[in-house]
Each structure stands twice: as structure tokens, then as C-alpha cells.
Amino acid sequence: MVRIMVAIDYDSSSEKAVNRALADINTEADKLFLCAVTSNWDYLNDEKNAAKLSLYKNESYCEAKKIPCRTIQLEASDIVGEYCSTIAEFEIDVLYIARQGFRQVANQDDLVFWGFSSIKRWITGSIVDNIERRAPCKVIIVE
């Protein structure tokens, strides 16, 4: 049994990661987790609501394909750290993540949040790059 997690963001690139995971999954034995971690700096809840909608859409897509999955939605100040902790907690073997989705913020009109996210990304690198370095499992980046 392989435990597979797909990191869900709020744009269509997450669908690419889900499709890649579904192509690789053994529906008889493997377990699928869909996980969205949003920033607790999202004071307008734009990112959290968009991620919740994306989780729901991807969960419904999996159900339509008769593939059971578990959804996880978390909020944290350290998104990368939260993903890594969740991967360890659920003993995930493989993480699928789309590079494109984690580059933008849900509401680019929110200048404070957008500015903070841009500066942080410039200093520390992208979320995907950091997850790839720190995750305690195999990471498959879907372009």
C-alpha cells in the first residue's frame, strides 16, 4: 500500500497534480489524501475559501472516478513546515504538487498580502522548492 498525497492550491494547476496522481494510483491498495494548507496571514480568508472550493472540486472529481480520498485543510504561518508535518503524521510515501499554483496569491488585489507573499518568496524561495527539499517522502512536481 502506498500513501499518496496531492497538495491542493486554488488554481487549475492542482487538477494537473490530481490527474497525475490518479494515473499512478493503484485503486485496489493505495490511499489518496488531498491536502490544502493556507496561510494564517490571510486575514480576508480569500486564500482559505479558494482552497476549500478547490479541495471540494478535486474530491468530487475523485469520487466521480470511484477513487476514495481523504481531504485535509489546514492553516499555518509556516506552510512548508505544515505540509512536512502532515506528511510525517499520515506517513505519506509520495507527494504530488503542481509548481504553478503555489506561485500566486488568491487575491492579488490585496496588496498587503500580495506584497508580503512576494517578498517572502524572493527571500526564502518558492513553497514548492522548499517542500521538495524538506519533505520526508518522494516529491513529484507536476509542471
| Overall body shape | globular
Helix content: 40-55%
The biggest sheet, with number of strands, parallel, antiparallel or mixed sense and barrel status, is: 5 strands, parallel
What is the CA-CA span between the terminal residues? Answer: 26 Å
Number of strands: 5
Annotation field: number of helices:
5
Radius of gyration: 14 Å
- Our estimate of the beta-strand percent is 15-25%
Mean pLDDT over the full residue set: 86
Give the low-pLDDT segments. Answer: none
* Structural classification: alpha/beta
List the strand order in the largest sheet.
3-2-1-4-5
What order do the SSEs take from the amino end to the carboxyl end, as H and E? EHEHEHEHHE
Any key phrases for this structure?
45% helix; alpha/beta; 143 residues; 5 helices; globular
